[in-house]
Amino acid sequence: MDNKRIRLEHIPKINPVHTPDHYFEDLPQRIQARVQQNPTKVLKPHWTARHSWLTAGAAASVAILMYLSWPTRQDSIGVETLSQLKTEDIVQYLEHENVSLQDLSDTEKNKMLIDSLGNQPLPQVKISNKEIMEQLSLEDFEDVI
Prior knowledge:
- The chain is mainly α.
- Helix content is 52%, strand content 0%.
- The protein is built from seven helices and no strands.
- The longest helix is centred in the middle third of the chain and has 21 residues, at 49-69.
């Protein structure tokens, strides 16, 4: 193979496509003549009573399936129902569902209860200030300071 460079000047300028004389000038008249010879058939929609019944049946099936699968709204459990349960059962359920005290304290009602307990000393807890100070380190208060 030769590594000669091809230049556009060396390529002959010929048109490889040949059309008959006056082809594009006569094209619209030829198309019109063919259309008038073979008129196209107009397609009409073919709708029957059977189609109507099938459509209605499909819509009814969808409506029934939606009704049966639609999730029902659950109302909150009344106080009367919870008062019939033992405290141990409620605690056991919460432990089984991995609900922590932190999760329970996030509600406003529980925050008020915890805050009110924080203001009053608990009688059953017997801890002196010295014991509390021994358990705390300065590292615990770095965020506060």
